[in-house]
Amino acid sequence: MQAVAARTASHRPPAGTTPAEGTPTPGVDPGLLVRMFGQWRFVASLGLDTIGFLAQLVALHRLPLFAVQAMIAANLAVTAVVATWLIGAVLHWREWVAVGGVVTGVGLLGSSAGPEGASQASVVFKLSLIAAVAGLALIGVAAGRLPDPLRTPVLGVVAGTGYGVLGVAARVLNSFAPLSLIRDPATYALIAAGIVSFLFYASALEAGSVTVATAAVVLAETLPPSAVGVVFLGDRTRPGMTGVAIAGFVLAVLCAVALARFGEAHHDDDRTGPNGESLAQMAGKAGA
User: Is 220 part of a structural domain of the chain?
Assistant: First the structure.
């Protein structure tokens, strides 16, 4: 839903078209998010995201970061199965295997995860999260100027890393009491990470391959925060279950990446003509 909304609200030329000579490469468009709010699909997706985020908050205060982030990536398995009856998508045997791999991996993680590590973090640690978001914003602005084949995956990595920072910030919140939230630097890291990640993910979705963007986000939002949880926050597995947790994590993430195409937008512009080109590419050539 977000992919369709991003492409509908985009002012970038369709994928596959060649900009006129001398035209500067369009960068990240901050107005994209504002225009997306005019798309009902985007507003509905925000409601779904809000429900998911509330569940994530509860999970982060009960389970290690590596388990929660991998389970979030596993949502692509749910999307793939739902797509088979909602939009008539066809899953090939490899994709059914990937769905089974995600379910198995999440099951291994759930059975091996110990209790969460330290939920309290120093002020310096929380301020470093804000600095990380600022750094990601600068990198994302620069990535928006990259040529299209490279632009999408780099923006996806930046957005995914931002979502990882959001997860870490949510994990180290001192309390959900209003006064505590106002005084906690992690609150501002969480808000900033959410805005930055949303902008760069939408920018990655608007013209590039949604499959590539989604795969990049999955990898970036699982690996770095999981490492942070183990190294800095004391996340651990149950005694003797480290190998099982690693196997479950790797299986869940790799299979989720294999299902990344189910984040794809279904647009009229994405349909192909008789020669295998998308209609957007054919229209671009006709215009040229």
Answer: yes
